[in-house]
Amino acid sequence: MPEWVRLQLDIDEFDDHAFEPYLRRARASGIDFATMAELGDTPDHRRALYDLNKTCSADIPDRGEFYTYEEYLAQRIDAPTFNPGGVVLALHGNEWIGMSATSLHPDRGLAFSEMTGVLGPYRGQGLSLAMKLLAIRFVRLSGYRWLGTLHHPGNASAIAMNRRLGFVDQAAGTVA
Ligand SMILES: CC(C)(COP(=O)(O)OP(=O)(O)OC[C@H]1O[C@@H](n2cnc3c(N)ncnc32)[C@H](O)[C@@H]1OP(=O)(O)O)[C@@H](O)C(=O)NCCC(=O)NCCS
Q1: What is the pLDDT of residues 86-142, one digit of tens each?
Q2: What is the per-residue pLDDT across 39-56, written as a single tens digit (0 to 9) for each?
Q3: Residue 141 is part of which domain span?
Q4: Residue 49 maps to which CATH number?
Q5: Does the CB atom of residue 123 touch ligand 1 within 6 A?
Q6: Atom 8 of ligand 1 has which residue's CA nearest to it?
Q7: Quick one: pLDDT at residue 59?
Q8: 41, 56, 94, 159: most buried by Cβ count inside 10 Å?
Q9: Which long-range CB contacts under 8 A does 140-145 form with residues at least 24 apart?
Q10: Is residue 10 part of a domain?
Q11: 148 in ligand 1 pocket by Cβ < 6 Å?
Q12: 107 CA to middle of ligand 1, Å?
């Protein structure tokens, strides 16, 4: 197994203003954003989240077989760290085209960026940055300073996207 890339963002140092144009541009082009808490944590929405996550995860290097729906429910949604307010969705009409899911870990005093994904036809338009801006606001409002994430070293786009936001390599022994 290759060495994972562990990144962390200091929310106190994050400059929201630098990334607001991505949100504005996306909205101007007809993309809406909502959390799963706002849309409703319903069985249909859980299934839609699973489908979107599964499709996007197919592009993660060496991801292997994705969870079955039952496994996803058990491991990702019916988990104490799941928070529907931390699931940011990008919507084009009725279609869910992007997600950024963040979990909260009070025991470790940090938040964790579980999965950010955008459907293929919508990539390269700044949607991941727009969703992450909303995710970072969720983390801040939840009272956390540190947001961590973990990537396969071959996942160049995801690593570049997080570095663009200001994530840096996690030094050994630090928070995330
Ligand atoms: C990673 C991913 C979410 C990026 O989404 P996106 O909406 O296309 O990304 P954006 O357009 O917001 O780009 C944001 C930044 O990421 C970087 N980036 C995005 N795509 C890139 C690519 N193919 N190669 C290199 N850098 C890339 C750039 O730095 C870009 O900023 P810039 O345009 O100012 O240079 C998307 O490629 C994806 O869904 N991948 C599959 C799922 C995945 O691997 N998720 C991460 C694991 S949790």
Answers
A1: 999 999 999 999 999 999 999 999 999 999 999 999 999 999 999 999 999 999 999
A2: 999 999 999 999 999 999
A3: 5-169
A4: 3.40.630.30
A5: yes
A6: 123
A7: 92
A8: 56
A9: 140/11, 142/83, 142/86, 142/104, 142/111, 144/11, 144/104, 144/109, 144/110, 144/111, 145/10, 145/11, 145/12, 145/110
A10: yes
A11: no
A12: 30
Contact 56, 13 (CB under 8 A): no
Nearest residue (CA) to ligand 1, atom 19: 157
Whole-model pTM? 0.96
Is the residue at 175 inside a domain? no
Give the Å distance between the CA of 117 and the centre of ligand 1: 8
**Cβ–ligand 1 contact at 18 (below 6 Å):** no
Mean pLDDT taken over the chain: 95
Whole-angstrom distance, CA of residue 50 vs CA of residue 142: 24
Query: Which residue's CA is the nearest one to ligand 1's atom 5?
Result: 128
Percent of the chain with pLDDT over 90: 92
- How many angstroms is it from 72 CA to the middle of ligand 1? 24
The domain total for the chain is 1
126 lines ligand 1 (CB under 6 A): yes
